[in-house]
Design a protein that fits this description.
This protein is mostly helical. The chain has two domains: 3-79, Homeodomain-like (Arc Repressor Mutant, subunit A), CATH 1.10.10.60; 86-225, no CATH class. The chain has 13 helices and no strands. It has helices spanning 3-18, 26-40, 47-54, 59-65, 68-84, 87-91, 96-113, 115-122, 126-129, 147-156, 161-184, 191-208, 215-222. The protein starts with a helix and ends with a helix.
Length: 226
């Protein structure tokens, strides 16, 4: 029997031990890995700790992913989905300014509510935590930040796309910087206060492009924080 077949057989046997004909799936492993990441950080994610969380031996985990590199790469994608997967749906049907603010709230909330996951996805060097550069060698500044919000703003305002792109880039950089500073300050700044700071900065940057957000609109946006 080949090594891969042997590991697959062991995986099935381990699954049966957990429950009648229940095989240990990739989704089960990723969920367990995510829970460990969320609770204790990426340093707690290992084949042995995942197996212990699932109540099985290490063989099923090894067979499903082959290596920790592959597991952590998929964990990265899984973590991004958990943090931001519903963002597009949340922005759907909103006007561009509402959607833009929702995006900022989600980013700050991710940093506050799931700090270890946020750190893994947005702060730590993937060459250290994963062992491979995520997204290749291209600079992050070569892509449009928050592309969905930028497209919505372009569709609603008669402003040059490059100007909108610059505004979106600047507020994303501000929001990320604020989230990281909160992390290093042990989250002593309340989440709501941070979201208000993001909103106020967004209003100032929008005004520079001729997009006026009056007090009535600002009050409506702030209600999303209640």
């Amino acid at each position: 029997m080949h090594q891969g077949d042997r590991l697959q057989a062991i995986s099935i046997i381990e699954g049966i031990k957990m429950g009648r004909k229940t095989q240990i799936t990739r989704e089960m492993i990723l969920k367990a890995a995510y829970e460990l990441l969320d609770e204790s950080g990426i340093g707690a994610v290992a084949i042995k700790t995942i197996a212990a969380r699932l109540g099985c031996s290490t063989q099923p985990v090894s067979w499903q992913f082959g290596s920790m590199l592959e597991l952590k790469k998929e964990l990265y994608d899984y973590s991004v989905k958990m943090l931001y997967g519903s963002l597009k749906e949340d922005m759907k049907g909103k006007d561009a300014i509402d959607a833009f603010f929702i995006s900022g709230i989600r980013y700050i909330s991710g940093a506050c509510d799931h700090p270890n996951v946020f750190k893994f996805v947005n702060v730590e060097d993937p060459m250290v935590t994963i062992g491979e550069r995520i997204g290749g060698d291209a600079s992050i500044f070569s892509i449009q930040f928050d592309d969905e919000a930028a497209k919505m703003l372009e569709s609603e305002y008669d402003i040059a796309p490059e100007k909108i792109g610059e505004m979106v880039r600047d507020i994303v950089i501000y929001t990320h910087g604020l989230a990281v500073m909160m992390m290093f300050d042990n989250y002593r700044l309340p989440k709501k206060d941070a979201c208000i700071m993001v909103l106020n900065m967004g209003i100032r940057l929008a005004k520079n492009l001729g997009i006026e957000i009056d007090e009535k609109k600002r009050s409506k946006l702030l209600k999303q924080l209640d």
